[in-house]
Amino acid sequence: MEIAKLTSKGQLTLPITIRRRLGVDCGDKIAFVEKNGEYILVNIDRLTLTERNSSMSIDNVVASMDLEGFEIGEEHKKYMYDRLAGKITIEDRIEHMNKKYGARDE
After folding, report:
1. How confident is the model at residue 47 (pLDDT cuts 50, 70, 90)?
2. What would the mean pLDDT of 87-105 be, rounded to a whole number?
3. Do 78 and 72 contact (CB within 8 A), yes or no?
4. Where do the H-state alpha helices sit in the chain?
């Protein structure tokens, strides 16, 4: 367990072992994710979906959503990976959903 002391200005210094595990450095941002009245520190860059690191980003988004109580099914995960890889377009997804659930007449 690591401990940090809060200053009178509300600041704290994260121990080096925690910074390394979070993958953060000077100037990086950290998100505080609340779950059941407790907070979890998350490197905010790992919550961002990016083309250059899509598999890691998706895994972290799914993990973050799981921490917040959202359930992500395998079909949704596959869609996210395929969408970022350029294997599927939003139009493809709409067509798939229309076939699966039937097109609605407006």
Report:
1. low
2. 79
3. no
4. 16-22, 54-67, 74-84, 90-101
- CA diameter of the chain: 61
> Is the CB of residue 35 less than 8 Å from the CB of residue 67?
yes
Neighbours of 45 (CB within 10 A): 18
Q: Is the dihedral of CA 23, 25, 27, 33 positive or negative?
A: positive
Distance separating alpha carbons of residues 31 and 42, to the nearest angstrom: 5
Residue 95 neighbours by CB distance under 10 Å: 13
Residue 90 vs residues 4, 43, 49, 53, 71: alpha-carbon distances, Å = 45, 29, 16, 20, 21
Alpha-carbon distance of 44 to 75, in angstroms, equals: 25
Rounded CA separation 71/23 (Å) = 26
Res 53 pLDDT > 60: no
